[in-house]
Structures are given as C-alpha cells and as structure tokens.
Amino acid sequence: MKLLVATSNPHKLDEIRGAFAAAGGAAARQVRLVTLADAGVDVPEPVEDRDSFEGNAELKARYYAQASGLLTLADDSGLEVDALGGAPGVISARYAGVTGGRAFVDPANNEKLLRELGDTPAEQRTARFVCAMALAFDEREPGRVCMLDEVEQRNEGGILAVVRGTVEGRILGPGDCGCTGDPAAYRRGRGTHGFGFDPIFLLPARGMTTAELTPEQKNAISHRGCAARRMWERLGALVGAQD
Predict the structure, then answer these.
(1) What is the per-residue pLDDT for 146?
(2) What is the pTM of this model?
(3) Does residue 76 have an active-site annotation?
C-alpha cells in the first residue's frame, strides 16, 4: 500500500515511519510512505485557516488526496501554553510572523514565546504539544482505494479517520539554565535533537527537554508518535482488508 505523507518536513516523516514500525511490526512494511516530492505532487500549499488542529489536519489530508489520488495522511501540530491562553496553538509554526528556513524561523518562534512568558513562575509555565492526524482518500475516485468498503468509514469529504496525541510538560524558565552565572542561558534552549519548540519544552519527570531525547526516546512519548500509533490502529485495518 502506498501512503502519501503530506509534509515537506523530513523530521515528521521519520517520526511517523518510526512510530508505524514500532506499532505495526512486520505489517508496517506493507505500507510504503511517500513524500509530496516522491509522488510528484506540485501544488500550492493550502491555506490552513481552521481554528483547531483537527480541522487543519482534515483540510490538508483532503486537499493532497485530491491532488494526488493517493491515500493521504496529514497532520497539524503545535504547542499550547496555559499561561498564554493556549497560544501559540494552530499558529505555532508562524508564531513570530517571520518566514524562511527552520534555522531562522524556529529560534524566532522560541524567542517570542519566552519573551511573552517573561518571568512567569515554573509552576505556571505548563504546556503541551498536540498533534492531530487525518487520513483521507480522493472521494471523487473511491475505486482507487478498493478495500475501503471493508472498513468502517467516517467518509466525510473523503476523511477516514482523525486522531489526536498529546504530551504534557512545561516551558523552560530562568531556573532551568543548568549553569551558573548566566540567568538568561535558558533562552538558548537545551538539546540538539528535534525541531521547533523542542529545545525549550521540558519534561519535568525526566528533567530533559524533548530536544535532549534521542529520536527513539522522543518517538516513544511524543505527541506525533502517540497520534501515529493511534492512526496505525486504523491504518492497520486497511492493510488487513487489502490482504
């Protein structure tokens, strides 16, 4: 089975592939994950104008399924910070309002978030990563996914399944720099793995940021890993139906 993963972010693709492999075992090898470039999909990105992660994930899954004719998986993910009323939420990737590559955008987003939180005490810096995933097919040509009749469908605009994964933590603060003599060191974040807000997202029980985890450790607990494992439960049914 070929599955289009509607992202240009290689980190997301690796996380989803790893989560599927862990959850599906040998069955996961029957699913070939392809990127937009692999599938030759060259269309403008859709405008992500929904007010929820689920809404944006469904929008993207439906859009790219229709553009490619392939069974398509899309996600929308971001960070919710309680002290900021759930911000940055669905605008996490463009929180700072800057454009460019991740090497430029990610630090700008992190700096804005830390600036907004200021000296907010550690106990009030609670936050969570959220990932919603949607699975869709091109409803205009349902025969392309012939096994769908064997599986319970939502079938709302081609949407087969929507799942959510979360991981709880808090945002680094002045007491988390891990050094002396430089109280602002926490603003540089901790760890070199991951992307986005990972260097400033602390898992208190581990005493580590998600950027300090290995890819395997992160996949085991991450919001995207959690959502991907839940999605595999639905996707695995499709694999079984195809067999």
Answers:
(1) 42
(2) 0.86
(3) yes
